[in-house]
Amino acid sequence: MADEKRLSARRKHTLKGCMLLVATNLLDAESHVKVGEREKFLEDKVPPLEVPYSKDELMELCQKLHEQIDISEEERYSIEFKLNMVLNEVRDLNIKIVDLRGKFKRPRLKKVRMSADAMLKALLGSKHTVNMDLRANLKQVKKEVKEEDKQLRDVGDWRKNIEDKSDRKKMFDS
Predict the structure, then answer these.
(1) Which keywords does the record carry (predicted)?
(2) Of 3, 119, 151, 167, which sits most exposed with the smallest number of CB within 10 A?
(3) Is-contact 137 131, C-beta < 8 A?
(4) Do residues 22 and 15 make contact, with C-beta atoms less than 8 angstroms apart?
(5) Is the pTM of this model over 0.85?
(6) Within a domain: residue 17?
């Protein structure tokens, strides 16, 4: 079954050849389209050059072209100057950022075992003494034992009470 799905070497070779032929045709067609687009663009943007036959007309044409070149060079120079100013400003700001980062090195934090009292003392300073021992701040209540509760506790063992009651029953029976 695996042999049936495999292509023979000859079939693979012919398929590769066909694919290459189609790809070259597509590339040729694409290059012809690009050449046509370029010619159309140049016709639209660049007017046809009318070469005058007299020397004076040629000189006048050269002067016009030089003026246009000067204008475009001035624009290019001004844009380039502005770009360089912006790039220098960005570079200076980056240097300032790096300098600020370098000044404030972050120390490595270490784990510190500290009691709550010591931590508050470190934060608030030695003026404030705060006691974090919460159990010391709790009110202590003394337990008063009431007389009634004492009598109830002294009733004693329930078996003795039952024996006392059984003696009474015997008294009535006899």
Answers:
(1) Actin-binding, Muscle protein
(2) 3
(3) yes
(4) no
(5) no
(6) yes
